[in-house]
Amino acid sequence: MIANLEQTFRWFGPNDDVTLAAIRQTGATGIVNALHHIQPGEVWSPEEIKKRQDIIEAAGLTWSVVESVNIHESIKTAGPGRDEAIKNYIQTLKNLAEQGIYTVCYNFMPVLDWTRTNLDFRLANDASALRYEARALHAFDLYILERPEAFNEFTSEQQKAAKEYLDTLTTDEVKLLTNTIMAGLPGTTDVFTIEEFKGHLKKYEGITADVLKANLAYFLQAIIPDAEKLGIKMCIHPDDPPFAILGLPRIVSTEADLKFLVEAAPSPSNGLTFCTGSLGARADNDLPGIVERLGQHFHFIHLRNVKREADGSFYEDNHLEGTTDMYAVMKAIILEQKKRSDSGRTDIAIPMRPDHGHKILDDYRYNTYPGYSVTGRMKGLAELRGLEMGIKRTIL
Ligand code: CS2
Ligand code: MN
Question: What spacing in Å lies between the alpha carbon of 158 and ligand 2's midpoint?
Fold first, then answer.
């Protein structure tokens, strides 16, 4: 029988309300962690890495994946300090490899990380989910951020829907929407002010998707030779949501983007994080097909589901429900594992996490990062491991 996917859980470090002891009870064996207190562009020292690794191992778990070593903005914009930031990035990779940590996730989303408009969207059973509502994002862009170009980007129908939506919001709700969209990096509670965000947008003037792609290729060509020597497996996380927002380009959203990326610096060290929740928010992404065609580059897998709506909105659904056919995705992943095994590759137990989960049951007692409840994620993980076993026993 072919090895199972490695079951992992994201942990935000000692300040996370979800303890390692709790994570161990979910059945996960691997931890996905980052040193969130170190700023992008700075080196993760061997001491800091070791300190965190010791905490994880003392709980009987393994630090399997780093998510993320974040990319400094100067690398994305090709701004001053880029080469210094790249040098530091490589040093961080060396320090991680020395501790035996080899899988490194990152993303190339300008300024923002993932974006939602509602962090407490209630489903029929009162579970709380994350939601991206197109008209809310448009309302923010047009009338709160007041980005002039937005008026040319949206149809008059979209503008009308956005205005009507905005008119229903109270002052407090406008503030909440603003803070939700302006959230900073995962693992922080930072929120950009409108002025700060406008300052960032300015730095992206003239940075088209093609320019951003060239900057990503520059970064990869600079780091991948070292990563390969170190045995580090880089795996980029796709854009969430997988389309341009707020005037910022996004370039890791489609199968063609993923193909460009792996071809920009061909190497076993230049790989992908396959996130079904992110890629699945686009109707033109064929997820099982992506596994079939690009699965050999996967070093890390995020499995979650979204329910897509006609206007580009979506919410995070139960892991086996929603628009993505999780059975077909899991089956394709298992066939990829088989291919690896048949060809003598040893990386069969690809680390997988349930990514996000709903807030259910006791989750309301914790103050967790949005999407990172313990019980909701455990439910997702439990469903996924059952699905994996069922398919493996049936087809292999
Ligand atoms: C999540 C993110 O958006 C997602 O799907 O997995 O928290 C993700 O971890 C970061 O945006 C990028 O690594
Ligand atoms: Mn993800």
Answer: 28
